[in-house]
Backbone:
């Protein structure tokens, strides 16, 4: 009976989500800056302008699309424009449009400029799939997960606001404080307020800050040699500060994940086997930590480094040596990964140590 | 000595102390995984088909992460099977969604970064975007599979006579925690990876509507969601594989007994 109800809710979420997806797809007039237009061609005329070969011997083409777009909102609503769009099939910096696309356009003095295709509806669609799947698999727990995730985005937004307001000053303090608040709220929502949650929180904070301090000292002692902060992307303020803040923020989730895994598994073990000794418990924690730390470090490695792959490929494509491509595109991500990895390893120690508190609790204060 | 090198050495020492033999193996799994990523970049830059490279490197990376990272063969085997099946399903989803999102290539900063670089590299950046998304989710899926399998097997070790039904109940409990916090690893990892991009959006006065249609933001948000979907699928699949493995064992034991009694 319980199962059926869960699937029913999942189906309901799916239907609502698809309706929202459609609403987003067809939405017009809600965007502040640009107007929406739809490509009316059944098949877009696509002409080869020339075949190109650059100095690096890369072969590409220049193509030109002739597109009819009908504006859907704003003062030019209902008008059709004919535009030419030049693109390269590799689509590194150019955009190829498809028939029927809904796209952003900006119109100034009767001249239309093509912008991004509408992508927000894809986000809504995939959010729908995720939430429906979540409801089907974990049921009521979904609410806590979604709320926790939404709150994280809100706090993240707030922290960014604050950082911009402070103009990048005290960035380490700001993100350090953010880590403490983030972890408390996330753990509170997912686990509820209890001893297990407080133990996990303690382990998380110790894991993040002790290791960050250690790495900071190492960086100071080695004089931060070969740390090319200026290669960080999108730097709008002191790149070194941004790097440290990114590191503090990026590792928090993983450390929280790990501390929760170890503490809650040990908690289950304590529940199942009442007569466990502290030594056995430490062994069990170490066992779990050993299993988890490798894969967890790899999660962050893949997130931090895969992101840089498109640039790395481009550098290599343009006959740069491997070491210069690495220096320009991967070294910061690699450093961030290693610092995070150190946090993850140290957290095994703290999470197991803090779990002893749970055991003591169960024995009525005696170890 | 460069800072990165010293940090790597400190990491190696710490992993050896805390993790023992498994720690050393984990260290190498991370190292090999990094080299594999660089190898992927090199192979793609040489013009080898992106889709083929991706298909070959998915199992290769999973093996590196799971088999080298865990010392328990049983945990590794269960995790690998679960992770591989989930990865294939998620890859199909990624392929479809990336096609819909049309979000290939570099972001809004491209103009500045590209000085002196080719703008016409002659390889499909649409396909590279798919590869990046798949590789970004791979780690989370493998991690969830290992956390599930090792959590469940740990319970079984301490409580050998546990029934299949009880184990499945424990699986739901462990699964909920793994899921709730796998979410954090992914979310914060992405926050940490893209903080500077968010600051850029904010300082340049992007509106909300612009941000949610912007190439890099959409890609990032989609990667978070793909990873979540991957982790979600991993939880029941891991539990199923382990409880099924249990019943097989029981059968084997029963057969052994039969042989002995004969």
Residues:
């Amino acid at each position: 009976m319980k199962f059926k109800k869960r699937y029913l809710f999942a189906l309901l979420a799916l239907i609502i989500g698809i309706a929202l997806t459609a609403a987003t797809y067809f939405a017009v007039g809600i965007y502040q800056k640009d107007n929406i237009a739809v490509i009316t061609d059944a098949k877009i005329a696509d002409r080869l302008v020339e075949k190109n070969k650059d100095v690096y011997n890369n072969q590409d083409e220049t193509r030109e699309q002739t597109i009819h777009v009908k504006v859907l909102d704003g003062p030019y609503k209902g008008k059709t424009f004919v535009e030419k769009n030049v693109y390269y099939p590799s689509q590194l910096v150019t955009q190829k449009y498809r028939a029927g696309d809904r796209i952003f356009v900006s119109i100034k003095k009767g001249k239309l400029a093509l912008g991004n295709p509408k992508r927000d509806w894809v986000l809504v669609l995939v959010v729908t799939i995720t939430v429906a799947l979540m409801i089907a698999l974990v049921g009521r727990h979904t609410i806590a997960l979604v709320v926790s995730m939404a709150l994280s985005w809100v706090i993240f937004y707030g922290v960014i606001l604050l950082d911009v307001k402070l103009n990048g000053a005290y960035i380490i303090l700001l993100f350090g404080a953010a880590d403490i608040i983030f972890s408390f709220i996330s753990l509170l929502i997912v686990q509820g307020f209890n001893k297990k949650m407080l133990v996990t929180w303690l382990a998380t904070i110790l894991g993040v800050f002790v290791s960050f301090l250690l790495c900071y000292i190492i960086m100071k002692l080695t004089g931060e040699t070969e740390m090319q902060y200026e290669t960080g992307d999108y730097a709008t303020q002191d790149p070194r500060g941004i790097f440290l803040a990114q590191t503090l923020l990026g590792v928090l989730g993983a450390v929280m994940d790990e501390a929760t895994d170890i503490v809650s598994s040990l908690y289950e073990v304590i529940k199942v086997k009442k007569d466990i000794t502290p030594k056995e418990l430490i062994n069990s924690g170490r066992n779990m930590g050993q299993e988890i730390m490798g894969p967890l470090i790899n999660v962050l490695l893949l997130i931090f480094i895969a992101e840089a792959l498109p640039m790395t490929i481009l550098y290599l494509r343009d006959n740069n040596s491997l070491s210069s491509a690495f220096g320009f595109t991967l070294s910061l991500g690699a450093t961030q990964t290693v610092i995070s990895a150190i946090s993850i390893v140290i957290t095994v120690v703290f999470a197991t140590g803090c779990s002893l508190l749970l055991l003591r609790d169960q024995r009525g204060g005696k170890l | 000595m460069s800072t990165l090198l010293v940090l790597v050495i400190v990491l190696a020492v710490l992993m050896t102390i805390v993790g023992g033999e498994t720690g050393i193996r984990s260290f190498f799994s991370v190292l090999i995984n990094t080299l594999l990523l660089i190898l992927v970049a090199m192979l793609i830059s040489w013009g080898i088909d992106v889709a083929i490279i991706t298909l070959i490197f998915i199992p290769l990376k999973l093996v590196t992460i799971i088999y080298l990272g865990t010392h328990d063969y049983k945990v590794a085997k269960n995790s690998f099977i679960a992770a591989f099946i989930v990865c294939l399903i998620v890859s199909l989803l990624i392929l479809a969604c990336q096609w819909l999102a049309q979000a290939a290539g570099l972001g809004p900063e491209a103009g500045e970064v590209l000085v002196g670089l080719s703008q016409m590299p002659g390889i499909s950046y649409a396909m590279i975007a798919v590869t990046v998304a798949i590789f970004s989710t791979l780690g989370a899926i493998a991690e969830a599979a290992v956390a599930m399998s090792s959590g469940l097997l740990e319970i079984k070790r301490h409580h050998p006579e546990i029934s299949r039904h009880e184990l499945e109940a424990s699986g739901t409990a462990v699964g909920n925690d793994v899921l709730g916090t796998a979410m954090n690893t992914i979310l914060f990892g992405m926050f940490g990876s893209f903080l500077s991009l968010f600051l850029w959006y904010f300082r340049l006065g992007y509106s909300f509507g612009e941000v949610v249609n912007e190439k890099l933001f959409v890609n990032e948000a989609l990667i978070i969601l793909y990873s979540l979907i991957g982790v979600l699928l991993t939880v029941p699949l891991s539990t199923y594989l382990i409880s099924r493995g249990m019943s097989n064992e029981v059968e084997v034991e029963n057969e052994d007994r039969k042989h002995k009694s004969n």
About this structure: Chain B touches chain A through 137 residues (CB under 8 Å).
